[in-house]
Predict the 3D structure of the following.
Amino acid sequence: MVNSRIVFVALAFLALASVPLVSGSFAIDLVTKIMVFAVFALSLELLVGSTGLVCFGQAAFFGIGAYATVLLSPQSDAASLLWLLPAAMCSAALYALVVGALSLRTKGVYFIMVTLAFAQMAYYVVHDTPLGGGTDGIYLNVRPVLGTVIDLGKPEVVYGFAWVCLAATFGLLALVLRSRFGRALAGIKTNEQRMRATGFSTYPYKLAAFTISGALAGLAGFLFAVKDGFVNPELLSWHFSGAVLIMIILGGLGHLRGALIGAFAFALLQEFFKSEAIFGGFAKHWNLGLGLIIIACVALLPRGLVGLPGQWRDRLVGRAALRGSAARSTP
């Protein structure tokens, strides 16, 4: 019997692959952005959903990947994708390694605040110094290429490349979570003290997960930079860290599918409430509508959107059981 989860993921990626064939430029741009958000959400899911580490500074790794892409690109000649992409990911991973090495020595709310503090430090570096262009941000002068096959100056090519990166990220994390390393992370999330008692040194595992998460966030930052050709300090702000945290909570913690669903739901809701054609002048207050919907989803769907089918099934089974019990008790 084919696993329904595998079927869902396969159909989702097939649907994404068909978007450029049936849609115009607006849809291609929107879905590209959503796929970038999905890669970003998957990077945080590895920490929060799979390891139990609530990081509130994930945007720093995203922003560093984006800024590294722009700052390391040449001013005129085309940049090679073969070295620029690894450079962006390694820059984010290196910062994640430093942040993780220090922040993982704390726990609970202190861990959250330390990751936030490091993210704000990175934010102020690009916001208040000429390095990142200050509040104006900086533009990407040339788009990366790989020979004559991949030219990330074309929206359709960027879309296809983002699709490949999303599929690769999802597949990589699926393999990681099914490995011995992934089972160790699950054990750390469930009961870290017990893991230590069984002989596991949990710190290296957590640091490795933190570094991998940073590298994947850097990949998302790279994709964002080549898509828009522009980066600004807001990519490293705590608002953006909060947004990606909302994505994985909305989709359902502990599930890679939840990160995908949450990223798509968040971005589509954002576009919906920003629509002046629907909301008129109220569209400028789109955060209010989005916030109300998210609160309602969290309150009514404790397992996130990914748990919605199961929640419906449980309700149907519960009602059927009540009817059966009532029928048996009727004289």
Observations:
- The first strand starts at residue 138 and ends at 139.
- The chain has a mean pLDDT of 86.
- The longest helix spans residues 25-51.
- Residues 4-242 form one domain.
